[in-house]
Amino acid sequence: MLKNKISLLALSLAFFCLSLRVGFAFGQDFEDAVKELRESVIRKKMKNTSEAKESDISEAKGARASEMSIAEKQKEKIIESEIAAKKEKMEPIEIFKYEEPSARELLKQHYNLALAYDQNQQYDEAEAEYKKALDIDPDDPDTHYNLGIIYDDYFQDKARAVAHYEKYLELRPGARDAENVRSWIRWAKQQLALSEFK
Q1: Buried b (16+ CB within 10 A) or exposed e, 100-138
Q2: Residue at 98 is within a domain
Q3: Quick one: average pLDDT of 145-151?
């Protein structure tokens, strides 16, 4: 009870000093002065509280840093053990993954290789590659066309030439060169007929 009286007396004295300092005694100005005193007390408390919080925060940061360093050390140990385990199991790394080419890609490869052989006048190799292309797609008109030319012009095998020319026309009846191919067929058949009379 004595403490309450002393604190009430201290508060009254503070109000009195404040009123002297500000130059008022009572009224609205006195209430403003009391309000200002309260605000200054609150500001002091907040300042003390914020300083305490800052010290708490810095302590917490220090604790967290030490926790993180422990966690980082544990993480490093785990990584090192994983690396050691992987070194024991060392398997070759796949740099390039091989994928089987599609049938269409294989057809193009054989066809293009046959064209290269054909242009270099290596007709046996060209024939072999064209046949590989036909093994993949027996209905490729361009392959039949080129094989027909090789058999007709270079191997002098008119029967096979006619067979490939006719297959070409069957697969591409409206081709731009269809009339030329029909004339080659007629010529090859005439050559076959003449060879039978000899």
Answers
A1: eeeeeebbeebbebbeebbeeeebeebbebbebbbebee
A2: no
A3: 96
